[in-house]
Design brief:
Elements: H1 19-32, H2 50-64, H3 70-75, H4 79-88
Helix pairs in contact: 1-2, 1-4
C-alpha cells in the first residue's frame, strides 16, 4: 500500500444536485460560449473575465429573479458555491415599465 500513489478525487466532474445549480451551470455555459459546465468548475478558469461576469450576473438576475452583487461571483466562482449564495439572496427589484405621463409633472 505504501508504494501506491495517493488517490486523487476529481470533484469538478460532478453534475448539478439542485435545480438552482442546474440553472447556474446552464447560464455559465451560455455566457462562456461552451457546451456545458460542471457544478464545481470555476467561471474564470475557461476564460471568464469581468465583462462576462457582469453579463452572467445580469442573466442570473433575470432568470432567477434574485438580487446578486457581482462580488458574489468573484467570492463564489463555481455554480455549486454560487447556488448557496443565490438561495440566500433577496428577490430582485421589479423591472421598470413605461407608465402614462401625467399632464402636470411634479417638480
Amino acid at each position: 500500500r505504501k508504494a501506491l500513489p495517493d488517490a486523487v478525487f476529481d470533484t469538478s466532474a460532478r453534475g448539478p444536485r439542485t435545480a438552482v445549480e442546474e440553472l447556474l451551470c446552464g447560464l455559465f455555459a451560455e455566457v462562456l460560449g461552451i457546451a456545458r459546465r460542471a457544478a464545481y468548475e470555476g467561471f474564470f478558469s475557461p476564460g471568464g473575465h469581468s465583462l462576462l461576469a457582469t453579463r452572467l450576473v445580469s442573466r442570473v438576475r433575470s432568470v432567477l429573479r434574485v438580487e446578486l452583487p457581482i462580488r458574489a461571483l468573484f467570492a463564489s466562482p463555481t455554480a455549486a458555491d454560487l447556488a448557496r449564495v443565490v438561495e440566500q439572496a433577496r428577490t430582485a427589484r421589479p423591472a421598470l415599465v413605461a407608465m402614462p405621463r401625467p399632464d402636470v409633472l411634479p417638480l
